[in-house]
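Support reply, case 0932

Customer input (verbatim):
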Amino acid sequence: MSSAVVSTAAAERRLFFDDEQADEVCPPLGTELVAEPRPPQRILPKDAGFSTEDKRLAGITPASRLAVRPVPEMVSSGLAAINALTGGLPRGCLTEICGPASSGRTTLLLAALAAATQRGEFCAVVDCNDALDPQSIAAAGVALDRFLWVRCGENSSRENSSPKKGRLADQPLEQLLRATDLLLESGGFGMIVLDLGDLPPQMARRIPLTTWFRFRRAVEHTSTVLLAVERQFIAGSCSSLLIQLKAQEHRIKQPGDSHFPVPAHAQLLTEIEITAEVARSRLEGKPVRSAEITFASKTAWAG
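Our regenerated output:
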């Protein structure tokens, strides 16, 4: 039900102006009203009705006519199971490999480095915790003459003596970010790896999101594969491919007579069954379906 407010003066038929103003507004009866001549109207062109904003919007390409972003080139990861799951590793993109300890992170890392150096590419690993084993690298088939190892420190908990506001206090982590910037700017590397696997997640999250965005912009439109090996995903939407690893089963060889219990320090690890899952993929511009695959990683002494 609508309501209206009526003025008291209007209800009493009173005018809202005095008598002199009434004569100007309402002339006496019998007075001939003469319309004042109007100025001639100018005929405008057909496009004169469009404002400046309309003309500016006319030059914008509709979303339906935008070109589809090309799918990046994929290269082998060195593991047939990962290639079947993701199609390989994308060039010009940031890929995150995540998993807890003994989940197959190092297995995938060494396989990717071996495949890249066997293609004749130069590779670099920025090691935040100085945990990489050169003998394991050589045993995995990595060509050491095309491999650069950047060691950032032995103790990741060491803090800068006078940290500035907004600056990371962890010195090895600062070195990792600076070294990565230099490697991306220099170019010429087929693969650059940020090894954050032994860094606590709460410390890894101190890397600003703007830093990951800078890395993504620096690597795009290049042929470099940028890998981040870590415990948990920390790059957010800046990564194009997220691979989650976890260990399903450990096979252990027990020396001696199996009828008697063997102490833990005498047991020998021979194989790990690993499950790899694509947590997210932005390579095709649409959400990826949940997919995972299981493969085994054998130790060198297992044969």
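We compared this against your earlier run and they match. Two observations from our side: The CA atoms of residues 270 and 301 lie 7 Å apart. The chain has a mean pLDDT of 76. Please reopen the case if you see a mismatch on your end.
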